[in-house]
Specification:
The complex is a heterodimer of chains A (241) and B (287). Chain A is an alpha+beta fold and 241 residues long. Helix content of chain A is 30%, strand content 29%. Chain A has one domain: Ribosomal Protein S5, domain 2 (2-Layer Sandwich). Chain A has helices at residues 90-106, 130-144, 171-174, 203-239; strands at 22-26, 34-40, 43-54, 67-74, 115-125, 154-161, 164-167, 179-186, 191-198. Chain A has a five-stranded mixed β-sheet. In chain A, helix 1 (90-106) crosses helix 2. With 287 residues, chain B is an alpha+beta fold. Chain B has a single domain, classed as Ribosomal Protein S5, domain 2 (2-Layer Sandwich). Chain B is 28% helix and 32% strand. In chain B, strands 1, 2, 3, 4, 5 and 6 form a six-stranded mixed β-sheet that branches. In chain B, strands 10-9-11-12 form a four-stranded antiparallel β-sheet, with helices on both faces. A two-stranded antiparallel sheet of chain B has the order 7-8. The longest helix of chain B is centred in the C-terminal third of the chain and has 35 residues, at 252-286. The radius of gyration of chain B is 20 Å and the shape is elongated. The chains are: A alpha+beta (241), B alpha+beta (287). The interface between A and B is medium-sized, with 30 and 31 residues. Chain B: It comes from Prunus armeniaca. Chain B: Pfam families: RNase_PH, RNase_PH_C. Chain B: This is Ribosomal RNA-processing protein 42.
Chain lengths: 241, 287
């Protein structure tokens, strides 16, 4: 199948190095300490952060740092075909773990010993790149909750199909069988916190694809900063400063 | 669930007794309601309803299936609710399953009207494509995104809005199939049939706190309830379903009184909901 037309357009009309439209919104769950909605094209996720608060299960308490927990859930209606049993399968457990590790790397856990931070991500619509969207949403939600972080973590995926590196794969491109590199970076510190790839690539192509993903992450970071700045301005306005 | 001090509890109970609740509402005033339709693009119909800090999403998906052998002239409708852990950390893992099951069952009995489906708010016979062979299976999924009490009413409203937003593809049946053969169908992706949602009921929950009952309780108020009665009522004023929750017993005469109160509240609710749904649908078509 042809994923990039001779004119250089992808199935959804994007150029190879073009991202889907991204949108972030802060404060979508009123009861949470921090929350955010993040959309990448048709992929739509909500993240909610509770904490830092008392550790619920005493045996898990850490005396020198905060306990970070994460749960990833997909709504029944999030995929094209209706899912029957979404809770606690291996895929969501794995993604929960990935998100937890990625976020843990940027949260300054040593400042909040003997406490717990819960990150819940809920996928409303899945169209490829849920992992990236979840991490971006979690980043925004953590910032909204006012949790001290070393830097924002932003994530974006890139792939390689029809000998072209493609940025931000959608579901059809993702399931095409080509390589799929999901990357998470801390843009200011310029450090990679998450890197996953399936399928095989030569080293040179991998370098190109990864460079593309880094560019994507940086673009997301710029946008997330804008959203946060806008939100802070709103807060400032409401306080009447 | 909700951590309240004794003083706060007394404040809530006293406010309800004096017909002035913590957020300034009267006992029978609902919170403002916001409706957004078409939020889930993969579904046949969807809606998001917000009442204060309560936020729910309902989606309707239609799949072709075989009708039940006992009821060849009726389609199938399944209602399922999930509580997202984003709403409250206690819903994490399997923590939300009990509440999800309770809400699903309550919605099922309010919307589908028993096993025979005769009292259903949705006209099940309109879902049949070929009698005894092909029908539409409707999967109605509710998702609680944020919870601040009165989930059942919000879910009921969201499902009503989602059904108004639902387009069922038109199906052309290839002629010539006879006997036991499964006829071939052609599902149109251009023509859609709209549902008649005028008979879909709304749900009004009356929560009894102390000697009085209130509508649209927040989670703080719900934590003080002795019992709650959810009544689903349609536009004609018929009761489509009734569920009682909570431990304490209720006097039968109070239940009858509650039903009449619910009836007047439901009239306002249906009117506001219908106008909101119409506005949301119009807004969606424009954009």
């Amino acid at each position: 199948m042809e994923y990039v037309s001779p004119e250089g357009l992808r199935l959804d009309g994007r150029r190879p190095m073009e991202m889907r439209q991204i949108r972030g919104e802060i404060g979508v769950v009123a009861k949470a300490d921090g929350s955010a909605l993040f959309e990448m094209g048709n992929t739509k996720v909500i993240a909610a952060v509770y904490g830092p608060r008392e550790v619920q299960n005493r045996s898990q308490q850490l005396n020198d740092s905060a306990l970070v927990r994460c749960e990833y859930t997909m709504a029944n209606f999030s995929t094209g075909d209706r899912m029957r049993k979404p809770k606690g399968d291996r895929r969501s457990t794995e993604i929960s773990l990935v998100i937890r590790q990625t976020m843990e790397a940027c949260i300054m856990t040593h400042l909040m010993p003997r406490s717990q931070i819960d990150i819940f991500v809920q996928v409303l619509q899945a169209d490829g790149g849920t992992r990236s969207a979840c991490i971006n949403a979690a980043s925004l939600a953590l910032a909204d909750a006012g949790i001290p972080m070393r830097d924002l973590v932003t994530s974006c995926s890139a792939g390689y199909l029809n000998s072209t590196p493609l940025l931000d794969l959608n579901y059809i491109e993702d399931s095409a069988g080509g390589a799929d590199v999901t990357l998470g970076i801390m843009p200011k510190l310029d450090k990679v916190t998450l890197l996953q790839m399936d399928a095989k690539l030569s080293v040179e192509t991998f370098e190109n694809v990864m460079q593309l993903a880094i560019e994507g992450c940086k673009a997301v970071a710029t946008y997330i900063r804008e959203v946060l700045l806008e939100n802070t301005k709103q807060l400032e306005y409401r306080r009447g400063i | 669930m909700v951590g309240l001090s004794i003083g706060e509890k007394h404040f809530i109970q006293g406010g309800i007794a004096q017909d002035l609740r913590s957020d300034g509402r009267k006992r029978l005033t609902t919170r403002p309601i916001y409706v957004e339709t078409g939020v889930i693009s993969q579904a046949n119909g969807s809606a998001r309803v917000r009442m204060g800090a309560t936020d729910v999403i309902a989606s309707v998906k239609a799949e072709l299936g075989r009708p039940n052998a006992l009821q060849p002239d009726k389609g199938k409708v399944v209602v399922n609710v999930d509580c997202s852990p984003t709403a409250a950390p206690m819903f994490e893992g399997r923590g939300g399953e009990e509440l999800s099951a309770e809400l699903s069952v309550a919605l099922q009995c309010c919307l589908l009207g028993g096993k025979s489906g005769s009292g259903a708010g949705i006209d099940l016979s309109s879902l049949v494509v070929v009698e005894g062979k092909i029908c539409w299976d409707l999967y109605i999924d509710g998702l609680v995104v944020s919870s601040d009490g009165n989930l059942l009413d919000a879910l009921g409203a969201a499902i009503k809005a989602a059904l108004s937003n639902t387009g069922i593809p038109k199906v052309n049946v290839a002629a010539g199939a006879s006997g036991d053969e499964q006829p071939e169908v052609d599902v149109s992706d251009e023509e859609f049939l709209q549902f008649d949602t005028s008979r879909v009921p709304v749900i009004v929950t009356l929560t009894k706190v102390g000697r009085h009952y209130i509508v649209d309780a927040t989670s703080e108020e719900e934590s003080q309830m002795s019992s709650a009665v959810s009544i689903s009522i349609n536009r004609q004023g018929h009761i489509c379903g009734l569920t009682k929750r909570g431990g304490a017993g209720l006097d039968p005469s109070i239940i009858l009184d509650m039903i009449s109160v619910a009836k007047t509240v439901s009239e306002q609710l249906i009117n506001t909901l219908d106008s909101h749904i119409a506005a949301a649908e119009a807004g969606e078509e424009e954009s």
